[in-house]
Amino acid sequence: MASRDPPYDPYIPAGTGASGGEYSGQNGGNTRTAALQAQIDDTVHVMKQNINKVQERGDNIDTLQDKADQVTQSAIDFNRVAAKARKRMMWENNKWRIMIVLVIILIIVAIAVGVHYGK
To answer: Phi/psi at 112 (nearest 5 deg)?
Structure first.
């Protein structure tokens, strides 16, 4: 009878059979288990790193949101102060305009009175 190849086992690397090589017997099971455990440990390590990065990202987003809120509040305060300053300057300018108009009126009245009584 011809020798038959062992059935395919995805957990046994290519080139080694079920009956021989490094992965046979108890020692092979321990080696495979150790290799799988190493892969699991690597995966767990990567997942822990990813979780830490997500937490850091969340913290960064919270910090950024706080800063954005502070900037928004500062902008609101600035607009309020700017509006008060604009009104104050408007009244200051109007006060000077009124004074100039009154001086011009007084000059015109003085000229009119001088012309009227100067004859």
So the answer is: -65, -45
- What letter represents residue 55's amino acid? Q
Backbone angles phi, psi at 19, to 5 degrees: -100, -5
Q: How many CA atoms lie within 13 A of 70 on its CB side?
A: 6
Structure tokens at 18: 């079920």
pTM more than 0.90: no
3-state SS track over 64-91: HHHHHHHHHHHHHHHHHHHHHHHHHHHH
Residue 31 in contact with residue 23, Cβ under 8 Å?
yes
- The answer for residues whose C-beta is within 8 angstroms of residue 15's C-beta and 6 or more apart is 21
Whose structure tokens read 């913290």?
Answer: 59
* Gap between the terminal Cα atoms of the chain: 152
Per residue in 52-103, pLDDT (tens digit) is: 999 999 999 999 999 999 999 999 999 999 999 999 999 999 999 999 999 9
Amino acid of residue 22: E
